[in-house]
Structures are given as structure tokens and as C-alpha cells.
Amino acid sequence: MASDGTNDAARRILAAIRALPAGEVAGYGEVARRAGLPGRARLVARLLSTVAEPGLPWHRVLRSDGRVAFPPDSDGFVEQCARLRAEGVPVANGRVRMPRRGPSLDETLWGPPG
DNA sequence: GCTTTGACCATAT
DNA sequence: CATATGGCCAAAG
């Protein structure tokens, strides 16, 4: 069987996005990570941009910052925002509540004087 | 085969 | 919180 690495990777990414439960969101890097492709965040974006898989909850995929990956004046932006709200995801000004990344150990240990 | 582009990410200012 | 910079990878010209 001709298992193409790139094609196989795309398949895993799509599977990871499909595994996203309604009401939850994840960043491109997060999706790539779950797909077993750490550091391929851009690949996930390209996949959604080039390939439009039907039934794929692409609207649950956001940036790491929790912001929509589309420009505020793009149709995709409005579309994603509306879909997220329809699933119970509070979207404000194109931003979604995302858990902050843990602070650096240096900041945690040497940051606050103690 | 090099250059450009892209629904990105992390860090620093 | 916004902007700027460097890095990363893969597809198209």
C-alpha cells in the first residue's frame, strides 16, 4: 500500500479535528499535537485552507491566543463566530476564552520575591 | 530547485 | 493587550 506520509498526516489532523467535542475549542498547534504532529500547526491551517472537508468542525479550531484565525472583515470570521456561539461557545469581539499557557518556571520561582 | 506565501506559535518589548 | 521578531513546515510559482 502506498502510504504517503503527507497524506497520512493530513488524515490524522482531520481525525483530531473531528474528535473535538461541541462547545470546546482548540488551537492549531494543539490539534497538530493531538494528531501526533508537534510543530505542524501551519500544516493544519493549510489543510483547512486548501481542503474543505465536509462535516469537519473547522470552526472549533482557533489560534493559540483564542482568537479567530480569520481577519475581522472576512466572511469566514463571521461564519466561525456564529457557529461557535451556536455551540455554546462565548465569543466576544472575535475572541474566545482560552486557558492561559503556564508561566515560565523562572517567573514562578524567581519572579515574585519571597 | 529556489523563492514566496500561509485559517501558525512562542518570546520579547 | 498590541506590536514586532524569529522559527517552523509544506505547497505552489
Automatic annotation (TrEMBL):
The keyword DNA damage applies. GO terms for molecular function: methyltransferase activity. Residues 94-114 are annotated as: Disordered. This is Methylated-DNA--protein-cysteine methyltransferase. It comes from Cognatilysobacter lacus. PANTHER family: 6-O-METHYLGUANINE DNA METHYLTRANSFERASE, ALKYLTRANSFERASE-LIKE PROTEIN 1. SUPFAM superfamilies: Methylated DNA-protein cysteine methyltransferase, C-terminal domain (SSF46767). Residues 10-89 form the Methylated-DNA-[protein]-cysteine S-methyltransferase DNA binding domain. Keywords: DNA damage, Methyltransferase, Transferase. GO terms for biological process: DNA repair; methylation. It comes from the Bacteria.
